[in-house]
Amino acid sequence: MINGKKVVVVLPAYNAEFTLERTYREIPGDLVDDVVLVDDASHDQTIQRASELGIRHIIVHEQNKGYGANQKTCYRKAMELDADIIIMLHPDYQYTPLLIPSMAHLIASGLYLVVLGSRILGNGALKGGMPVYKYLANRTLTLIQNLLTGQKLSEYHTGYRAFAREVLEKINLNDNSDDFIFDNQMLSQIIFAGFPIAEITCPTKYFREASSINLSRSVNYGLGVLGVSAIHFLAKRGILKPALYRGLDQ
């Protein structure tokens, strides 16, 4: 706990057999109260490895439901465990768990309600091996998203995020996609609701076992991101009233 607040780390897992242990071993057990792993019908030994590591809360999707659906299950379980601070960390070891204390303290102190681990701050992305085309796509999408949402974030596409409980209670998670666009819809809702967001520099690692999506899915993701930002822009001006932002007006 931090300042009497319960910290729960959630791991949305898919084929993380070879990276899960490295990720889990670096989670600070003296600060984190519970760890939740949700396996989205992996084809490898992710569930067995999670059990061997002693992860207490393991949930298995019998059929692959998608990255967004995995996170929805993660957050529901964290809330059931009475988490005050929920940290979402990919178990593919692209992001270091050693930043968990810093991210949790920013929320526990009351300074921010959302903290993002940014690969772009400090040039960590290219140093960590992010392909140049992905870096350029990230920067281009982020520029457009900032223009349409009125924010100044360094990136919207990180898989390392921390939330105060009240944020997850407020936004409409179930109205979001079950696919990769979930992350951007969630951030759009958070911005729409006016929750303060902090970013912290996060080194990242790209290697063979780390998760990735292919080119065609990347293109679809990019188009989806632009669509979310356009809808955000129109909804903020009262032109559209999508369910995504129901009850989120300041």
Termini distance?
30 Å
Oligomer: single chain
Q: How helix-rich are the residues, as a percent range?
A: 25-40%
- How many structural domains does the protein architecture include? 1
Order of helices and strands: EHEHEHEHEHHEHHEH
Number of strands: 7
Shape: globular
Number of helices: 9
Rg of Cα set: 17 Å
* Class by SSE composition: alpha/beta
Low-confidence stretches: none
Please report which band the strand proportion falls in: under 5%, 5-15%, 15-25%, 25-35%, 35-45% or over 45%: 5-15%
Physical arrangement of strands within the biggest beta sheet: 3-2-1-4-6-5-7
CATH topology: Spore Coat Polysaccharide Biosynthesis Protein SpsA, Chain A
Question: Average pLDDT across residues?
Answer: 93
CATH class: Alpha Beta
The largest sheet is: 7 strands, mixed
The named CATH superfamily: Spore Coat Polysaccharide Biosynthesis Protein SpsA, Chain A
